[in-house]
Write a structure and sequence with these properties.
This protein is mostly helical. It has one domain: 2-Layer Sandwich (Nucleotidyltransferase, domain 5), CATH 3.30.420.40. It is about 40% helix and about 5% strand. It has six helices and two strands, in the order αααβαβαα. It has a two-stranded parallel sheet with strand order 1-2. The longest helix is centred in the middle third of the chain and has 21 residues. The mean pLDDT is about 85.
């Protein structure tokens, strides 16, 4: 779930939820010396800096999409979503950047989990921006990680994408094909 942070869970081939902690927010995905430092963990290049409301706000700043300093992260995301619905080129670039980061991150996560299906949820994935993220992530996986070509990325309907993480996790629906 790409939302106020980055969360994930893993269900193995036997249908069992993993017993480990799947805290993906603090997984390093950017090893550049200039990568942003996470204010909570103090680590550089954490996934949360790219794949969350915090990440979209940071990328908005870099794209020249300004907001008041008092704006909450969720309000910045709403602003980004509204700009995206208005076909703003800078908003499109933000969502494409999130998608590229997601594609590379998924490849990195696959070093630790045998991935076959990924369900993408959370407020960052809502609206047309979520579809752009999905397309960009798929593009990165196809071009840079052909060994992951069997991996399927899914996005549920709009309501579940935004609010249904708990329901989806509780029901663990069978998935077939890609969205």
């Amino acid at each position: 779930a790409l939302g106020s942070s980055l969360a994930g869970g893993y269900v193995g081939d036997e249908g069992r939820i993993s017993g480990g902690i799947d805290e993906l927010a603090f997984v390093p995905i950017d090893y550049a010396t200039g990568a942003p430092v996470d204010e909570w963990s103090g680590d550089r290049g954490c996934a949360v800096q790219y794949l969350s409301q915090q990440g979209t706000a940071r990328l908005m700043d870099r794209a020249g999409l300004t907001a008041s300093p008092e704006a909450l992260l969720r309000d910045r995301l709403i602003q980004l979503q509204e700009l995206m619905e208005g076909d703003d080129e800078n908003a499109l670039r933000v969502y494409q950047a999130v998608g590229r980061a997601l594609g590379h991150s998924i490849a990195h996560f696959s070093d630790f989990y045998p991935l076959r299906h990924i369900v993408l949820m959370g407020r960052v994935m809502t609206g047309s921006g979520g579809k752009t993220i999905l397309e960009s992530a798929r593009g990165i996986l196809a071009s840079d990680y052909p060994g992951l070509n069997a991996l399927k990325l899914h996005i549920p309907d709009e309501r579940e994408r935004r609010h249904g993480q708990a329901i989806a996790a509780a029901t663990l629906p069978l998935l077939s094909g890609g969205a």
